[in-house]
Design brief:
about 400 residues; mainly alpha; about 0% strand
């Protein structure tokens, strides 16, 4: 291998790590900016939490395991205007629950009850939901959104494919700057319309403790709706996908380890102003798609979050607000597409495909917990039928 070939390979790897580091902004940025601008939460506390969690994740897994806001909790807090104390309480309760499930071994038992078909069905449903949310975010400027999506989708066939994502973001920011249009959030996820830039003033970094009423309200309104999605997508589905992407390190990505890292992060960081956080199969899919393979993607992302936390001001808020919503929507749609697609949809056995589609349909029509239950029941029925057939034979 010549020096030139080696250099090109190193540059390609580095560009992949950099692109992968920011590939999940479609999920991350709208929720984080919504919490800061619409609910007036501390930007320093939120970005510090993500920075420390990402750096811990980088050195704990040494692979691009993503760090995301807990989507249900963040969306409900934004949409209903809930207090920082409720967000804080929900994060700490989720942390305790995840640690109990991890150290009791219950999370590994739950993972064993899921066949690959059930897991793929859940991923398919979540992927479709992400694509739908991404499409809604692109709806205000379809030309920008679809153009960005097409470039990102086709980038896999280009020589410098990992440079497509930062190029799309930079071009989008230049277009936003020249057009003078503000960042307006109109996605179904946040279900509100507001200018983010106009309310992003520097806020004091204050510590507080949830009241008794905030604890009880958070348990009912936030923790229960979030729990099923966290256990399936952030722990079990992420574990399955990580083992698929990095098959030689399967033990490193057990559901127990993922539940432990998420649990510790929430329990230790939310008291200092961080939002509820988790891992996510969609984030892993899109980061891997854009070239993240090792430790550097989460290190770059975490370091950037810490830099934003300690240098927060109106200039930083203005710069983040320049990223068009349509660009974020295209990133979110790519993440959903990567998560939803599986070869099992084409080459799986008929009953396997039936379980996948049934699980996904119930997840979409009702909720993730119901889809999980239906998928497990179908697999249990198949196993009992096999036993009955063998005995009869």
């Amino acid at each position: 291998m010549t020096c030139k070939t080696t250099l090109l390979k190193k540059c390609d790897q580095l560009s992949g790590e950099f692109s992968g580091a920011f590939a999940d902004l479609g999920t991350f940025l709208p929720l984080v900016l919504g919490l800061i601008a619409l609910n007036h939460f501390s930007p320093q506390g939120i970005f510090m939490g993500f920075g420390l969690f990402a750096l811990f994740t980088a050195f704990y897994y040494r692979r691009p395991i993503p760090v995301q806001p807990m989507k249900v909790i963040a969306a409900l807090v934004i949409a209903q205007g809930l207090t920082p104390g409720m967000l804080q309480a929900s994060g700490m309760m989720m942390g305790v629950i995840l640690l109990i499930l991890a150290f009791s071994g219950a999370i590994n038992w739950m993972a064993k009850q899921l066949s690959p078909a059930v897991s793929i069905g859940i991923q398919l449903a979540i992927g479709i939901q992400l694509m739908w949310m991404g499409a809604q975010m692109m709806s205000q400027t379809w030309i920008i959104g679809l153009g960005a999506f097409a470039l990102l989708f086709c980038s896999r066939f280009l020589p410098l494919r990992y440079l497509a994502m930062p190029l799309v973001i930079i071009l989008g920011m230049l277009w936003q700057y020249n057009s003078g249009s503000p960042f307006i959030e109109e996605s179904a996820l946040l279900s509100t319309q507001a200018s983010v830039q106009s309310s992003m003033h520097s806020q004091l970094w204050s510590l507080s403790w949830p009241t008794l009423s905030e604890w009880s309200s958070a348990a009912v309104l936030l923790v229960l709706p979030q729990l099923a999605l966290t256990l399936t997508n952030a722990v079990i589905a992420t574990s399955a996908m990580a083992k698929e992407k990095f098959p030689h390190e399967k033990d490193k990505f057990s559901p127990r380890r993922l539940a432990t890292s998420s649990g510790l992060a929430n329990l230790l960081l939310t008291p200092f102003g961080a939002t509820a956080m988790c891992h996510g199969a969609g984030g892993l899919a899109v980061q891997h798609h854009f070239g993240a393979r090792g430790i550097w993607a989460p290190v770059i992302f975490g370091s950037s979050c810490l830099l934003i936390a300690f240098s927060w001001g109106e200039s930083v808020a203005w710069l983040l607000g320049l990223i068009p919503l349509a660009i974020l929507g295209s990133l979110l749609s790519i993440a959903g597409l990567q998560l939803a697609w599986s070869k099992r949809l084409l080459d799986g056995k008929p009953f396997c495909i039936f379980v996948i589609l049934s699980t996904a349909a119930i997840c979409l029509l009702l909720n993730t917990a119901a889809g999980l239950a239906v998928g497990v029941l179908l697999e249990m029925g198949r196993r009992h039928w096999r036993i009955f057939s063998d005995l009869k034979g």
